[in-house]
Amino acid sequence: MTKRRQLYLVVVVLLFFLLVVIYSTNLYFINWLTADQRPSVANDLPDRQVKSSIQRSINNRSGSRDDSLMRLVYDSSTKFNRSGGIEAAVGIKVTKLKTVFKNKNPRYYPVKRGLLRSFGAKSFNISNVWKVAGSFPKENEVYPHKDERIGKVVKALQEAEIIRARNTPRGTQLKLLLDLAGRQTVLFKPRWYSRNTTIEGKVYAGKDRHNSEIVAFHLAAVLNLRWTPIVVGRRISLVEIHRLADEDLRQTMIKNGTQQCVYGKCYYCKESEAVCDDSDKGTIEGAVLLVIPGKFTKYRSPWQRTYQDGIAAEWEKTDSYCAKVKEKLPLVRLLDLIDVAIFDFLIQNGDRHHYETRDDRVLLMDNGKGFGNPYKDYFDILAPLYQCCIIRKTTWERLQIFSGGALTETLQELDEIDLLQPLLTKEHYLAIERRLLLLYTTVELCREKYGSKIFK
What we know:
Helix content: 40-55%
Structural class: alpha+beta
Number of strands: 11
Largest sheet: 5 strands, antiparallel
Order of helices and strands: HHHHHHEEEHEHHEEEEEHHEEHHHH
Number of domains: 2
Mean pLDDT: 87
Shape: globular
Strand order of the largest sheet: 1-2-3-8-4
Radius of gyration: 25 Å
């Protein structure tokens, strides 16, 4: 072998090893950027499981639908109005979703870190904490972005002494009004179910889930839809509440053996359905909601259900329904309601029959009907999105930051700050990731049909 050939061979070998080093280094840094210290929930949901889970969800949907929809293949003529058609198209398309929607976006990490810092205060000053909380609501936000004072309010809601307790007859579910030290009134929603209870039946079945109110507050902060009340979990003693109660509340408190119970006053409240202190712990857990100051206006949702078997609402029957809504609502209000639909789909709250506004902007109130069944996805909750095929650009960008398991990772770490953690079972976190993929796919199908004009 000539010297020239030997030199040529050495150069080829060196180039080969250089390429190997470059490839390995790139692979290492990609893995490093997307690494997570805890196992990602999304990693437990491979494509085949996504597909079978979505198929099962479609099969289990309440109401009847032509089985031919299961064989529907998406094309440019697919209608985006009827839930069955778009749901089947999404079910087919979701397993072919771009990998960018399945991998972690490194941009989520500083956002998560900022949220944890904002929520994680160790102390509070009772002399001014409620005044600070009262100064939070402004325009279209109930609490500020990246503010460590939020954590102080959270801590105060968890620990401030209860001074007085009353009934509140407003609404359909049992709630108590509690006055905390420092002259702050809060709502208390008690626990009705254990964490692993699966609510069967209609999407709006069952009583409110207190943990849904807490997780909804966290999720809204993650998605930058800061329109919910600040909510924390807390255990209280109904024996102590009886001592602090006014006469009206005491009239709705009963004994079940040695347990103190309460049934309260509301539309569905009755003595036979009371909640009681835990026989072992002597307390009951529930959600404490900070009352939002200001004047509210209540509206009927354009996508309200009929709540009657066999009777469909107009939005469930009319292909051009969104056009009718656009004639009645300004674009800002419609985009607010689409944000609400996205939020409700992730938690599976299908009971948004009315909505409330403050300073003419929509609030995310009454989030207790979420997380009833982790094995079902009621796709028609997304009707405002897939019927109108528009979405705020900022909402879409925020959703993309939390792809590939980052959403549930962030939620889990926020949930761990709460006194009642764990707030959800693993199955519910898996369901959130599954629904996020369905949401991505729905927006992508809208984009394929209408282009970038869907982003507002």
